[in-house]
Write a sequence for this structure.
């Protein structure tokens, strides 16, 4: 477990999950590993945060789930982005870009 | 809430089990996937499983975290709390029964009194836009006439100079008629007169037919009638084709134009209405004040503006008719205030009383719950140890309190409904708006609201206590089974003290009203009330012309009645004391030493004063037992041919001739031009009798003058409506039929009505204070009982909690007496504190009920003392059982008791 464990903001976690699912439909562990991979291990998504987030987003209609078979033939619950989820991801990405830019500017100002 | 979220909520609530199963499977499959991953990375399967578990961080916790974000989570825990709460309450039926019963009584009496307050004081009257309706009155303060009806010329002037009102109408009350018909005995009815503008102004549409048309409201053409709902139902059997039919009043035919709605009432209950038929061309005298005037305010006109306008109008009258007006003024009263202002003080006092009762009930239940909660401390401790948050425990306790409160409210509705029935039965029949008192949606909402508030209020103490207490200690304490924490005991003691204080307050209030009532009953009415029967009859104008025919009829009738066997004395009077009938008029003085009396120009600037005037037959004083103080009573010789005489009461004699004798002085009743007397007709005062309480035992009435009925009072006029007073020890029923026989022999169309014994009249006259008293006494007894239960609860609990300690004391040699003394000392301290607070509150608050008191100061020391003693006795009696139990403890058993 890396010492610099980052406390994920809920919105950030949602965004990363949505981003991961934008590329492919995945089950929970897949999403977890995908986020770790993209962020090169900066973010580790633990089940205690992952599952509540998935269920919440499903209730909001951004995701749908179905039971499928994993690569090593285990039954697993897969998640898939809906069009509402895709719109949400776009909105979040755009918002994040604005915030990141603003923060960068603030920090670079002398 | 989005549609998706709503759908999830439904799914979560309806398919809870399926959702749970899916969640379980998902988390499980996640674990298996993790294990697979670890094995692929080269770990031994057992190590892989261990690491997977570690990474997962607890299956149950993950599932709980998912559940918490789900839609409907709050609802679900609430449901759990409710179910758990119900189970807990079922588990202790004794506690639950006492708590619900206490609350039901507290909430029930509030429901009853609130429904009365709502119906009488709050709800608008059943007229169109009733808040803008006002009554217009004149006043002659100096002459002792604070509320004077309006005269015809004043009414016409007001219509002409009206600035503030959009509509004005006139009516007149107090009329009487004999409803006669071929197929039955004559019946007396009350008859009011209205002009054509009245019903449109009030916005009253008749149930059948219509109200009076302007051309029906004309002098000499006014033989039309509007029936009340009650008369239509009772006398005419609800005949749907009544409109257009003819009825006979005093032998004359009247065409029925309509039937008024059931809920309509104006100036009390009237049997029927006829047109007023005012003659603008030939109005009555300016001084003849008999019209009730009601008006609708123009929108946006303030009360102050209207008052100013009415005063300006009165000044205009002074300028224009200086001979008729000296001190006359005019004012208005909102119609609702006019009707209900008499009941307002009593209702507000009763409402406060039931609020205090409910407070006591709340405190009682809070106390019960605290005792109950301390036996649950262990349970709460265990739940806390298993991870229930403090907020969760508080919510659980509050939920239980609310369940209790709402059950209490439900039973309270039943109590309240019974209370309303009882109230309508017990209240005097002439209580305004009594038939509007019932449980309507507003009352139901009130009861629901009060129940919720009650639950929060009495739930706070145990919840606060649970939130504060150290749960680990609770576990320890429970295991030790020793005395409750000091904090909890202090809280419970404080609650008992406040309960006692509230009970003292109610006891003092009820005590003051009780003493007032006994003072009121102790007042002598000025005559002997026992064995007197009263009966009223009125001679119609058509059959009996003014003067001799009326006088002769009553002269002969009294001779016949005197001859009825078993009648000791009989007389008749124009207005019987303690009935709603009263009459006053100006009495002029030939000479009086009083300088500050108002004077009247037209007859040589004579001093005059408003006096209660009565016409009587000679036997009246003996029949009622009114004592003669000086001079002589009236007798048969004082007839139309004899010199005019009068008898006055002691107050009259004392006020106008404070020095010297009233006997032999001259007064006149008809020294005003309207009776077309060329000069004042002086009467000689021949006797002074005792004062009679005419308006009620507690009311200071005007001075009284009695004139012989056989001598016309004004012009040729003698009253045609007289009430007989008959002194007899025979059964009132048989005497009534004997008298009725004599009346019917003289005139077969004359009904006798308002038949009552004098004792009944006295009883009716104090019906309102008696009802106040009964209600306040009932509430005070309820409060006392609840407070006693409260004190008992605290002391019994204290003894139980201290069994161990008391056991040690007794083992160490304390005697039973010592233990008793200790328990009573503790109870005594609570009682003394409660008494101190309660008496202090009583001294501060009872002055607000001064208007309900009679002959008793709000701070009456005797009442305060008796209330305090009663409460102290009851409180100490309540702790007798726990104290005795403590003193009989067997030390060995007590020490073993865990």
């Amino acid at each position: 477990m890396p010492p610099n464990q980052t406390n994920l903001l809920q919105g950030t976690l949602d965004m990363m999950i949505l981003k991961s699912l934008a590329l492919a439909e995945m089950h929970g562990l897949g999403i977890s590993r995908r986020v770790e991979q993209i962020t090169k291990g900066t973010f580790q998504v633990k089940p205690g945060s992952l599952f509540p987030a998935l269920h919440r987003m499903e209730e909001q209609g951004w995701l749908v789930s179905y039971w499928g078979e994993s690569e090593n033939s285990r039954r697993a619950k897969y998640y898939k982005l809906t069009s509402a989820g895709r719109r949400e991801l776009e909105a979040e990405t755009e918002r994040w870009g604005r915030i990141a830019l603003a923060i960068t500017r603030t920090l670079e100002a002398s | 809430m989005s549609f998706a979220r709503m759908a999830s909520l439904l799914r979560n609530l309806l398919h809870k089990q399926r959702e749970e199963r899916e969640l379980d499977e998902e988390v499980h499959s996640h674990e298996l996937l993790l294990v697979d991953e670890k094995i692929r990375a080269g770990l031994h399967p057992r190590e892989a499983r261990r690491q997977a578990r570690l990474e997962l961080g607890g299956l149950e916790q993950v599932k709980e975290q998912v559940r918490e974000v789900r839609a409907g989570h709050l609802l679900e825990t609430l449901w759990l709390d409710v179910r758990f709460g119900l189970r807990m309450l079922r588990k202790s039926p004794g506690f639950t029964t006492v708590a619900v019963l206490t609350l039901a009584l507290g909430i029930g009496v509030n429901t009853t009194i609130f429904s009365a307050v709502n119906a009488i004081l709050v709800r608008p009257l059943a007229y169109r836009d009733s808040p803008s309706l006002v009554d217009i009155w004149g006043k002659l303060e100096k002459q002792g006439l604070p509320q004077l009806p309006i005269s015809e010329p004043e009414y016409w002037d007001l219509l002409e100079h009206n600035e503030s009102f959009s509509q004005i109408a006139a009516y007149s009350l107090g009329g009487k008629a004999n409803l006669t018909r071929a197929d039955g005995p004559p019946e007396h009815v009350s008859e009011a007169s209205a002009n054509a503008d009245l019903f449109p102004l009030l916005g009253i549409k008749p149930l059948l037919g219509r109200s009076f048309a302007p051309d029906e409201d004309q002098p000499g053409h006014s033989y039309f009638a509007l029936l009340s709902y009650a008369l239509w139902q009772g006398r005419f059997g609800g005949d749907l084709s009544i409109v257009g039919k003819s009825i006979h009043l005093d032998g004359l035919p009247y065409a029925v134009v309509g039937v008024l709605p059931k809920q309509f009432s104006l100036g009390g209950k009237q049997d029927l209405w006829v047109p007023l038929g005012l003659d603008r061309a030939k109005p009555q005298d300016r001084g003849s004040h008999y019209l009730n005037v009601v008006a609708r305010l123009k929108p946006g006109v303030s009360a102050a503006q209207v008052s100013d306008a009415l005063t300006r109008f009165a000044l205009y009258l002074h300028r224009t008719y200086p001979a008729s007006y000296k001190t006359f003024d005019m004012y208005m009263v909102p119609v609702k205030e006019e009707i209900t202002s008499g009941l307002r003080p009593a209702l507000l006092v009763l409402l406060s009383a039931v609020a205090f009762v409910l407070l006591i009930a709340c405190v009682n239940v809070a106390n019960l719950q605290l005792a109950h909660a301390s036996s649950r401390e262990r349970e709460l401790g265990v739940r806390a140890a298993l991870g229930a948050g403090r907020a969760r425990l508080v919510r659980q306790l509050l939920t239980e309190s609310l369940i209790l409160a709402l059950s209490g409210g439900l039973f309270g509705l039943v109590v309240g409904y019974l209370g309303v029935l009882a109230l309508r039965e017990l209240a005097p029949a002439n209580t305004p708006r009594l038939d509007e008192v019932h449980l309507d949606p507003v009352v139901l909402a009130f009861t629901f609201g009060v129940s919720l508030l009650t639950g929060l209020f009495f739930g706070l103490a145990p919840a606060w206590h649970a939130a504060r207490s150290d749960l680990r200690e609770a576990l320890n304490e429970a295991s030790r089974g020793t005395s409750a924490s000091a904090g909890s005991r202090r809280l419970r003691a404080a609650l008992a003290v406040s309960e006692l204080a509230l009970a003292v307050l109610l006891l003092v209030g009820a005590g003051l009203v009780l003493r007032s009532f006994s003072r009121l009953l102790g007042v002598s009415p000025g005559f002997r009330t026992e064995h007197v029967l009263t009966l009223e009859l009125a001679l119609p104008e058509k059959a009996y012309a003014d003067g001799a025919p009326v006088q002769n009829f009553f002269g002969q009738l009294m001779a016949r009645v005197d001859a009825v066997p078993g009648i000791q004395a009989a007389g008749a009077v124009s207005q019987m004391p303690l009935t709603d009938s009263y009459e006053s008029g100006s009495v002029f003085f030939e000479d009086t030493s009083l300088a500050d009396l108002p004077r009247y120009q037209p007859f040589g600037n004579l001093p005059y004063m408003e006096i209660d005037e009565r016409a009587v037959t000679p036997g009246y004083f003996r029949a009622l037992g009114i004592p003669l103080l000086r001079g002589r009573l009236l007798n048969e010789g004082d007839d139309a041919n004899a010199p005019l005489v009068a008898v006055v009461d002691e107050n009259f004699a004392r006020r106008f001739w404070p020095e010297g004798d009233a006997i032999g002085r001259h007064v006149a009743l008809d020294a005003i031009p309207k009776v077309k007397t060329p000069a004042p007709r002086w009467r000689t005062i021949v006797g002074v009798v005792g004062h009679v309480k005419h308006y009620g035992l507690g009311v200071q009435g005007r001075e009284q003058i009695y004139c012989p009925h056989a001598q016309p009072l004004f012009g040729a006029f003698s009253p045609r409506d007289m009430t007989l007073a008959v002194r007899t020890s025979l059964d009132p029923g048989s005497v009534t039929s004997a008298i009725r026989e004599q009346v019917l022999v003289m005139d077969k169309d004359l009904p006798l009505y308002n038949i009552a014994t004098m004792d009944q009249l006295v009883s009716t006259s104090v019906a309102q204070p008696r009802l106040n008293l009964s209600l306040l006494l009932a509430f005070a007894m309820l409060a006392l009982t609840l407070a006693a239960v409260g004190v008992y609860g605290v002391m019994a609990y204290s003894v139980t909690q201290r069994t161990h300690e008391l056991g040690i004391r007794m083992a160490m040699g304390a005697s039973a007496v010592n233990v008793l003394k200790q328990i009573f000392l503790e109870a005594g301290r609570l009682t003394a504190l409660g008494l101190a607070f309660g008496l202090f509150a009583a001294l501060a608050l009872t002055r607000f009920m001064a208007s309900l008191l009679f002959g008793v100061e709000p701070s009456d020391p005797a009442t305060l003392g008796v209330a305090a003693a009663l409460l102290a006795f009851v409180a100490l009696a309540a702790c007798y059982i726990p104290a005795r139990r403590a003193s009989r403890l067997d030390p060995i058993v007590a020490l073993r008791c865990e």
About this structure: Chain B touches chain A through 28 residues (CB under 8 Å). The mean pLDDT of chain B is 87. Residues 589 and 667 of chain B are 5 Å apart (CA to CA).
